[in-house]
Design brief:
Elements lengths: L1 H7 L7 H6 L1 H21 L7 H18 L2 H4 L20
Length: about 90
């Protein structure tokens, strides 16, 4: 299998020792790693793709709760709600 890969892709057939043996390759890998860490530090939560659905659900639930808190005030005479009682016309007993 390795021989087939070496025939098809001769530039990729180099071993890890050959790639990491030169100082330029080590420097390129180190700079790439530093770049990845710097981007993660700057954009930390923006790159967190797995958290996007959870963040969306949390904000949707917060918005629903905020709207539900004032539903009764918006429509006090909606079906199923108790109507406020009016004061009676009778004179209270003394």
């Amino acid at each position: 299998m390795h021989a087939v890969a070496a025939l098809l892709f001769p530039s990729l057939a180099a071993t890890a020792a050959e790639l990491l043996g030169s100082p330029a390759a080590l420097l390129a890998i180190a700079l790439g790693l530093v770049l990845v860490i710097a981007v993660h530090q700057v954009h930390g939560s923006d790159l967190d793709l797995w958290a996007l659905p959870a963040r969306g659900r949390a904000s949707a639930l917060t918005e629903c709760a905020r709207q539900a808190a004032f539903l009764r005030l918006r429509d006090p005479r909606a079906a199923g709600r108790r109507q406020p009682r009016a004061p009676s016309a009778a004179v209270p007993a003394a």
